[in-house]
Amino acid sequence: MTRPTGQYVLTFLLMFAIGLGVPISPLFASRMGASWVEIGLMGAAWGIVFTSSAFLTGRVSDRIGRKPVLAMSCALSALAALWFLRATSVTELIAIRGLEGLAWACFWPPMEALATETADTERVGRGIGFVTTVYALGFAIGSFAAGVMTGFFGFTLAFSTYFVFAAVSMLVVWFVDTPKRTRHGGTRPPGGLSQRLSSRGLVAGNVLGASYTFGLATVMALLSVYAAGLGIPIFWIGSALSIFWVGRILGAVFAGTASDRLGRRRVALTALLVGCVGFVTIGSAPSLLLIVVGALLAGLSIGGIFPVNVAIIADDIEPELRGAAMGFYEMICAIAFMAASAFGGITAELVNPRTPYELSAVVFVSCAIALAVLLPKHPQTVNARSEGNITN
User: Fold this and answer.
1) 178: which residues sit within 8 A by CB, 6+ positions away?
2) pLDDT tier at 115 (50, 70, 90 boundaries)?
3) What sign does the CA torsion over 343, 346, 350, 353 have?
4) Is the pTM of this model over 0.85?
5) What is the pLDDT, as a whole number, of residue 57?
6) Per-residue confidence (pLDDT) for residue 238, from 0 to 100
7) Mean pLDDT throughout 20-34?
8) Are residues 215 and 297 in the same domain?
9) Range of the domain at 84
10) Cα–Cα nearest to 212, from 375, 324, 53, 371
């Protein structure tokens, strides 16, 4: 069995680097005189590029291997950091965020595929759960460090550190162990890639991914403004978001392993119901305490769903198509994230600021019903069905 230590180190370093840049880039744009529309375009550039390229980068990683595409992610991130240091216009910042979207697309589909390939067949959830935990830790620590660096020393130190860590990750990627490429014997499931992507398991995984991302976008894009409207001070808003990240980390730690032991369906349904309670709590919150409790529950749910989600997809598709499957999944998630952000903002404006959280609760319940229909209680994985894998 291939050792996954290298992929954990790589994930932490690169997510720490990207975590340094993401929270301060809108502030950097504002310092340059960017309007709200231009700041919104920065996020849109990231989303459009990521959405349009994730499937392609995943498919490329199936053909040429995971390492070259991961190395490209590191190189693009380092280039983005260097460009931040030299940028002189808001237009450049919009382009940089698009570049970061491509870097993200070069990282997650191959890394998700790799995490499932380096785990034992019966421990796929545990493998992706560890990667998710390391990602959350790295990104959260990087975001915190960015605030400290920028607050005391300015943007230059934060972007310089971003560049250094991204550059170091370019070296680390070559020490990541990857399994030998395999091809399946006569029991390989029939059908081409498009038919495989429409199988029941992958449909269930993508429905779950779109649903959890809908909730994630509602928290990330709207919670701070919603809390401020309730008169909660900025310090406590930041604390509530930190609690959300703590929940994500804890959920990722336990859910993947739990799904290996108890079944994907049971853990996914539990996580969705926990998230539903969390969103209802946030939406009815007249106080900081209820927002914190709701954020923690939403974090536990969203953190727990992700590794189970990836494991559901990995269970239903063979390794040589897994990069493409993960890329398609990431594309669906990106579309859901952008749609939820836009739709949540519109409904908050036209109906009530609580409405986006109520909608997220409805989405989670609807997804739970869909999964109860789509997922068997004890699915048999493609790897378990496939016999006589031949190593090339």
Assistant:
1) 2, 65, 66, 67, 114, 117, 118
2) confident
3) positive
4) no
5) 95
6) 74
7) 86
8) yes
9) 1-175
10) 371
Report residue 289 as tokens.
């305490």
Residue 186 inside a domain? The answer is no
Residue 257 lies in a domain: yes
The answer as to whether 52 is a domain residue is yes
Answer yes or no: is pLDDT of 387 > 60.
no
Model pLDDT for residues 323-368, shown as the tens digit of each residue: 999 999 999 998 988 888 888 888 888 888 899 999 999 999 999 9
Q: Which two tokens stand for residue 97?
A: 């965020």
Rounded Cα–Cα distance for residues 231 and 176 (Å): 48
Tell me how crowded residue 266 is: count the other CB atoms within 10 A of its CB.
Answer: 16
What's the pLDDT score for residue 172?
Answer: 94
pLDDT at 15 over 90: yes
Question: How many structural domains does the chain have?
Answer: 2
Predicted confidence (pLDDT) at residue 64 exceeds the cutoff of 70: yes
**One domain for residues 126 and 219:** no
Q: In this structure, are residues 323 and 59 in contact, taking their beta carbons and an 8 Å threshold?
A: yes
